[in-house]
Amino acid sequence: MTELDPVIHAQARLRVVATLSTLNDGDRIAFPRLQDLLAMTPGNLSVHLRKLEDAGYVEVTKTHRGRTPATLIRLSRRGRLAFEEYTEAIRTLLDPTQLDPTPSKEQQ
């Protein structure tokens, strides 16, 4: 049985990682934009980002745009790899025949 990454598997974190995975490698998204895309409250998004950051899956950068504080988020290389492994595990669960390309006697 394929193991699903429990850090990513929580619905809200899966939505965060899936959204961040659509960015080009190295691109960042502003916290308010991510919050809008996911329709999450700031507190809820912060909690899930912290969990993903603790796992090394996202990088959070706090900076300033002029005098205004800005929080930028991106998927780390480790996070991108974890998401690829997670999606492969889901595919395997949905279609176990992907594990062994040779058909069994029952499948022939």
Automatic annotation (TrEMBL):
It holds the Pfam family HTH_34. It comes from the Bacteria. Signal peptide: none annotated. InterPro entries: ArsR-like_HTH, WH-like_DNA-bd_sf, WH_DNA-bd_dom, WH_DNA-bd_sf. Gene3D superfamilies: Winged helix-like DNA-binding domain superfamily/Winged helix DNA-binding domain. Residues 18-93 form the Winged helix DNA-binding domain. PANTHER family: BSL7504 PROTEIN (PTHR37318:SF1). This is Transcriptional regulator. It comes from Micromonospora profundi.
